[in-house]
Amino acid sequence: MRYPQGGGLTAERQQFREELRLQAAERFAQGKASSVIAKDLRVSVRSVQRWRRMWDKDGPRALRSQGPASLPRLSEKQFAQLEAELAKGPAAHGWEDQRWTLSRVKTVIGRRFHLTYTVQGVRKLLVRNGWSCQVPARRAMERDDDAVAGWVKEVWPRAEGSRRPVEPGSSSRTKPDSP
User: Fold this and answer.
1) Could you give the angle at the alpha carbon of 138 between the alpha carbons of 132 and 141, nearest 5°?
2) Among 22, 54, 49, CA closest to 36
3) Global pTM?
4) What is the pLDDT of residues 70-105, one digit of tens each?
């Protein structure tokens, strides 16, 4: 996860970044160069240039924190209910195998809470709440090892060999090889 506490910046970190931007605004007013400000504040020159454009357009208030980018659409209570639904397993929700996919979780959220999420939104929601992708501990019972071996022996070589052979040729696109 990129950031702690639910996938976003902590309140302290937001405050720290806002203070940096406001310090930069003071230096803009003094007429200092972007490279000097970036070096003093230990940030990138591009960030300082972006802040300066915002400051030129709307003044110091444009550099104030806007708060979190988005609020979670499922409350903590609703997410606890979702976890209870997921604990029942996919079979309880009409799927034959015991495998949760992001699209299936999306469907459960839609049915249970009447909210629409994208597949990536579901992934972010789950990661934000401490869930992670899992790999099965053992192979599926439905796996047919003979069919897999046959595919590797017969189909894969044809797919692998379908590339055109490498032959010496001309580096010119218009003039063919000379004999």
Assistant:
1) 120
2) 49
3) 0.45
4) 667 888 899 999 999 999 999 999 998 888 899 999
Reference 65, options 24, 28, 19; nearest CA is 19
Residue with tokens 């405050």: 15
Which positions ≥6 away from 17 have C-beta within 8 Å?
A: 9, 65
Both tokens of residue 157? 């070589």
Closest CA to 92 of 80, 108, 68: 108
For residues 170 and 65, what is the distance between their CA atoms, to the nearest angstrom?
60
Give the residue carrying structure tokens 């003071």: 26
* The residue type at 89: G
How far is the C-alpha of 103 from the C-alpha of 105, rounded, in Å? 5
Q: Rounded to whole angstroms, how far apart are CA atoms 110 and 99?
A: 18
Structural contact between residues 102 and 122, judged by C-beta atoms closer than 8 angstroms? yes
CA distance 58 to 56: 6
Rounded to whole angstroms, the Cα distance separating 31 from 97 reads 66
**Tally of residues, the chain:** 179
**Closest by alpha carbon to 122, among 104, 137, 135?**
104
d(CA 98, CA 93): 10
Q: What angle do CA 155, 158, 159 make, to 5 degrees?
A: 85
Residue tagged 């609703």 (tokens): 78
